[in-house]
Amino acid sequence: MKLIGHYDRTFRDYDGNAIISFVVPNIRHQNLAKELDPEKTYSIEVKEVKKKRSIQQNRYMWALINEIDVAINGRPCDDWAIYIMALERAGAKCDYIAALPETEPALKANFRAIKYIKDVDLNGKRGRMYKVYIGSSKMDVKEMNVLIDTILDIAAEVGIETDYWREVLK
Questions:
Q1: Which candidate, 115, 109, 149, places its Cα nearest to that of 132?
Q2: In sequence order, which residues have a C-beta less than 8 Å from that of residue 76 and are 6 or more positions away?
Q3: 3-state secondary structure the chain
Q4: pLDDT tens across 31-83, in order?
Q5: Is the pTM of this model over 0.90?
Q6: Buried (b) or exposed (e) across 121-138, using 16+ Cβ within 10 A?
Q7: CB–CB of 40/24 below 8 Å?
Q8: Contact 118, 101 (CB under 8 A)
Q9: Cβ contacts of residue 103 below 8 Å, gap of 6+?
Q10: Which is the most buried residue in 43, 68, 131, 141, by most CB within 10 A?
Q11: What whole-number distance in Å separates Cα of residue 109 and Cα of residue 32?
Q12: Minimal CA–CA distance to 82: which of 96, 68, 71, 93?
């Protein structure tokens, strides 16, 4: 169970134990907290919530990627190719994995984006080298800003007016 809230204050009970108070505004998280059993001991980890871009910003990013795709290909063709191109140009973190061709579906399930690079020899078997990306959802703010700027640059390069997009993506 994961609850998100704001630290309020620390109290002490009569035995000197700390009682830490958090304000939990999300109703779903409040309902989860109701499931806690006061007779059980829980492990609690407190981490600062990193600011993530909004779902709406993510939709805008993909809408712009789609517009770039149409500008390049004349119709919606392959948003993922545009996304991978942007990740590469932005210098996004990636890794290389050599695998058998039949593992490609598993790679697609475990990484946000994958790109076939070349055939390789895997101990006498025909394998493939893939470039794999975790994706923008795992990026910090600085990395995400670089990716968005890269997507905006690609859009401008293919003749898309970017003033509106700059506004909604920042």
A1: 115
A2: 66, 69, 70
A3: CCCCCEEEEEEECCCCCEEEEEECCCHHHHHHHHCCCCCCCCCCCCCCCCCCCCHHHHHHHHHHHHHHHHHHHCCCCCHHHHHHHHHHHCCCCEEEEEECHHHHHHHHHHCCEEEEEEEEEECCEEEEEEEEECCHHHCCHHHHHHHHHHHHHHHHHCCCCCHHHHHHHC
A4: 888 899 999 999 988 888 765 566 778 889 999 999 999 999 999 888 999 99
A5: no
A6: eeeeeebbebbbbbebee
A7: no
A8: no
A9: none
A10: 68
A11: 29
A12: 68
- pLDDT for position 3: 80
CA geometry: angle at 119 spanning 117 and 125, to 5°?
145
pLDDT digits (tens, 9 = 90+) for 151-170: 999 999 999 999 999 888 87
Give the pLDDT band of residue 1 (cuts 50, 70, 90). Answer: confident
Tokens matching residue 106: 């598993």
Give the list of residues 6+ apart from residue 133 with CB closer than 8 angstroms, or none: 84, 87, 92, 93, 94, 111, 112, 113, 114
User: What is the average per-residue pLDDT within 134-141?
Assistant: 81
Distance CA 143, CA 147 (A): 6
